[in-house]
Amino acid sequence: MKQIYLDHAATSPMHPEVVATFSEALGTVYGNPSSIHGTGRAARKALDDARKFLAASIHADDNELIFTSGGTEADNLAVFGTATKKTGKHIITTVIEHHAVLHACAKLEREGYDVTYLPVDENGRVRAEDVKNALRDDTILVSVMLGNNEVGTLQPIAEIGELLKETDVTFHTDAVQAYGVLPIDVDRLNVDLLSVSAHKLNGPKGVGFLYQRKGTALTPLLYGGEQERKRRAGTENVPAISAFAKAVEISLSTMEDKASAFEQYKTIFKSALDQQGVVYKENGSDQMPHILNLSIPGIEIESFLVNLDLSGISASSGSACTAGSIDPSHVLVAMYGEQAAEIRNSIRFSFGIGLTSEDIEQAAAKTAQISQRLALK
């Protein structure tokens, strides 16, 4: 039975060319980039080349990137690094952020900070006007994700950034899900901090970066050496960073073709469900092209995912399945309310490399069969 992987928003397989770059670097670029001998200088050049390319991918300067272990560390550095550096105790975020932001904010609340969690509409979108109305004299940070990882809805980041432009408030966006999928220009978005992670775009796990605009105050989380211009201690993972740059190079060169293919996959998937008479609702709007989140009445998500898996389809939901219980998706709860059926019957399909139209047709057919069978019980 062929396995069809439709969970690229959770993590993505490494591109073969990225694997080759990673493997070669593991064996050849083994020096410490902080060493002054030839082996160290070779590692430094590889690191500098990758940094320059990755910075250019978001229209930033190379000295504005801080390499991290991934999106979670980048988000934590943005939140905690801002909070401990700036005077003021008020933070604004949204109820649909990734837990790397939400849990960091919750910790700050326990330490005496005041956090405003802005609501979203039924499409999962926050209003820039709500950000403006929530601002206070002691506001130090606004953190709003660029694209939601569960329903794919894009947020009005440029609009929010514009209204914060003339303030002293630091503006952070979690772009982990959007980077490599959509063009990103930090100046057009008007952001001060931006988080990304390699494993969402066919790069290796365990590496990412935080963009820090020049002049933006930030306290390090890690202390030790003076790597990353004294902003993040620890010897840089040069092979992974080189592979990260290769993944981004491929993503940028194929972005338009992928977006077109993913939109076609959505059409194929929904058309197949329509033909089989499956009733469904698409969650979210103004979405990233690779995410399709569907609410299918009459199913329970846990059994649905198990049946899909047994049929060779890898998909997911925003629910955390634990022993005997389901913790509902905080994103869907924010969109529809705690009693809504959508929080119990919504599933996310997300697309990436290695898929074909035939795979999508097959996955949709199995989805239709399973949903009809489970709905009869």
TrEMBL record:
Gene3D superfamilies: 1.10.260.50, Aspartate Aminotransferase, domain 1 (3.90.1150.10), Type I PLP-dependent aspartate aminotransferase-like (Major domain) (3.40.640.10)
Molecular function (Gene Ontology), one example: cysteine desulfurase activity
Catalysis: reaction(s): (sulfur carrier)-H + L-cysteine = (sulfur carrier)-SH + L-alanine
Keywords of this entry: Iron, Iron-sulfur, Metal-binding, Pyridoxal phosphate, Transferase
Cited Pfam families: Aminotran_5
Domain Aminotransferase class V: residue ranges: 4-362
Names of required cofactors: pyridoxal 5'-phosphate
Enzyme Commission number: 2.8.1.7
PANTHER family from the UniProt entry: CYSTEINE DESULFURASE (PTHR11601:SF34), CYSTEINE DESULFURYLASE FAMILY MEMBER (PTHR11601)
Protein family per UniProt: Belongs to the class-V pyridoxal-phosphate-dependent aminotransferase family. NifS/IscS subfamily.
Annotated protein name in UniProt: cysteine desulfurase
Organism (species): Planomicrobium stackebrandtii
